[in-house]
Amino acid sequence: MAGPLAGIRVLDLSRILAGPWATQNFADMGADVVKIERPGEGDDTRKMGPPWIRDAATGEAVDAAYFASCNRGKRSVTLDIATPEGRAIAHRLVAASDVLVENYKVGALAKYGLDYASVATINPRIVYCSITGFGQTGPYAQRPGYDFLVQGMGGLMSVTGERDDLPGGGPQRAGVALADILTGMYATSAVVAALFHRERTGRGQSIDMALLDAQVATLANQGMNWLIGGTVPKRFGNGHPNIVPYQAFATADGHVILAVGNDEQYARFCAAAGRPELADDERYRTIAQRNAHRGTLIPELAAILASRTTDEWVALAERVQVPIGPINTIDRVFADPQVVARGMRVDLPHPRAGTLPSIASPMRFSETPIEYTHAPPVLGQHTAEVLRELAGVDADELARLKAKRVV
Question: Could you tell me if 404 and 85 are in contact, meaning their C-beta atoms sit under 8 angstroms apart?
């Protein structure tokens, strides 16, 4: 059964993470994603190891695990678009594609005839998605942009980390490249929306995605707290600016997260913990009251949570339907019964490693389920196949292109 984007072809001129994250989503959903890479070099993330994907026979390092995180299901074509021959082939691939995703510096692709204005003359139906640090307009448009930089500039680090008045206080970046990943997710949504528009009108369009825009957009309640409340949000460590209790607590043998989202859950927790009076106390009856009196409530709760083990609290939470859970290390995540039951690890055949583990997509379709068939490609794995199929390159021409290092 074909995926929801079966029949759509994506020309992927992106590298590192934000663009490849979006194009991996398209591949998961059944699109034919053709990844264009520099001959002999490839995507930068192929070299961002260790750890390495290793050849099953020789042990030789093939690619970094980083590359495998965002390039599943694609076909790799090596092509030097800086050469006239490479540009001509790229234009043929444009003509055969529905979507183009790129993350070059603003204006950099114009000299290759691969900017939106040029591409649209070749294929007016194409959906062209540009991903940059700061967008195609504005005073920062020409600046290089990286996830870490944007997490800082976009406000995320100002609300991430321990409170300034506590040991270890200060700004922290998220443990994964959230600005990149969120931009990739927004890009996925934008491209699918543009394809839907094309189905109705027959017209393609350009999409301007910026890491900084995506980071600002996903400030969510913290951004609105500032816009409406007028007070600059601060770091709360593992606490929450609006909801109490909603943080990590030490237990007798580790830590748990108590994430109480409403007053009913809070009352159930207090009753199950043997302290119902904390739910009846006028200071703590509602979320707003608990927020106002967090200074007295949190120490009370800390003492309660410290009286039992992590497993005891998790078992109690299961019985009374209160959100309590452990803080898992990554190895425990993939051993978690729920994660296992949901099939979040998939193993894919790899041309050199034999079998390669991958992390499944969280998108679950009832009619067009995702099928995992292709591991992240080795560099240039599909060059001959794709150029023959989509650009009409025969064996003799391919040999000439290889000799000139165009492919």
Answer: yes
pLDDT tens, position by position, 374-388: 999 999 999 999 999
Of 91, 95, 97, the C-alpha closest to 7 is 97
Q: Report the alpha-carbon distance of residue 326 to residue 100 in Å, rounded.
A: 42
CB 372 within 8 A of CB 364: no
Point out the catalytic residue in the list 28, 32, 147, 180: 180
Q: Does domain 9-217+346-403 have CATH number 3.40.50.10540?
A: yes
**Residue 349 tokens, joined:** 């055949």
Options 1.10.630.10, 3.80.10.10, 3.30.1540.10, 3.40.50.2000; which CATH number does 246-327 get? 3.30.1540.10
Q: Does pTM top 0.90 for this prediction?
A: yes
Q: Phi and psi of 356, rounded to 5°?
A: -130, 125
Q: Is 180 an active-site residue?
A: yes
179 near 215, Cβ under 8 Å? yes
φ and ψ of 172, to 5 deg: -135, 140
Instruction: Please give the radius of gyration of the chain, using alpha carbons only, rounded to the nearest integer.
Output: 25
What pLDDT, in 10s, does the model give residues 259-274?
Answer: 999 999 999 999 999 9
- 214 contacts 208 by C-beta, under 8 angstroms: no
